[in-house]
Amino acid sequence: MAELVRILGVDTSLRSTGVAVIQSNGIRHQAVTYGRIHAPASWPRSKCLVQLQAQLAEVIAKEKPDTVAIEGIFFCKNIKTAFILGEARGTVICTCATAGLPVYEYAPRKVKQGVVGSGAADKTQVAMMIKRLFALKEIPQNDAADALAIAYCHATQLRTSDQTGQQNSL
Q1: Which residues of 31-40 are buried (b: 16+ CB within 10 A; e: fewer)?
Q2: Does residue 143 have an active-site annotation?
Q3: Which tens digit of pLDDT belongs to each residue from 47-76?
Q4: Residue 158 pLDDT class (50, 70, 90 cuts)
Q5: What is the dihedral of CA 27, 126, 135, 4, to 10 degrees?
Q6: ∠ CA 101-86-167 to the nearest 5 degrees?
Q7: Is the dihedral of CA 107, 109, 111, 114 positive or negative?
C-alpha cells in the first residue's frame, strides 16, 4: 500500500473560497476537514485577501498538508471578475508557497471528469458524487465540495505517480 499523503484542495474565490484537506494513498481517500473561507460583500477587496491569506495559513499550520491542488485558470467573460479571481489565486499560491508546499493546478473540466465522469457536470452532480466518494453524511456546501473534488482529482494521480496537474513553479 502506498504512503499516505495529505492534500489541501482549494477552490479559490474572493468571497467564498472552498478549502478541504484529504488523506489518500492513491486508492483510498478520506476527508479530514472541509469548509469555506467566507468574506462579507461589504468588505473591501484588500480585507478579503488578508483574511484569505490568514485563514488559509491557519489551515496549513493545523492540518499540515504535503501538497496543494487548486483549480486552474478558466475562461472568464468579465475582465473585472477575472482580475479579482487572479488576485485571490495569487494570494492562495503565495500563501502555499510561503509554507513550502508544492502547488498543482487542475483545469475545471479535468476535475469534473475525474469526479463525475463528465467534464460538463454541474455543481450539484459534483457535490453528490463527492458525498458518495468520501462517504459523507450530507452533501457539502458547493465551495467545500469543489475543494474536495480538486483534492480528489490530485489524489487519483497518485495511483500511477503521474501527477498530470500543472505544477505552479516560482
Answers
A1: beebbbbebe
A2: yes
A3: 999 999 999 999 999 999 999 999 887 666
A4: confident
A5: 30
A6: 35
A7: negative
Please state the domain extents for the chain.
5-159
User: Which residue in this structure is represented by grid cell 454541474?
Assistant: 122
pTM, two decimal places = 0.90
User: Which helix (H) or strand (E) is 60 found in, with range?
Assistant: helix 45-63
The one catalytic residue among 3, 71, 87, 105: 71
Cβ neighbours for 123, distance < 8 A, ≥ 6 positions apart = 142, 145, 146
The pLDDT value given to residue 170? 33
Pick the catalytic residue from 3, 11, 87, 122: 11
CATH 1.10.3540.10 fits 5-159, yes or no: no
Residues 6+ apart with CB under 8 A from 92: 10, 12, 17, 52, 56, 70
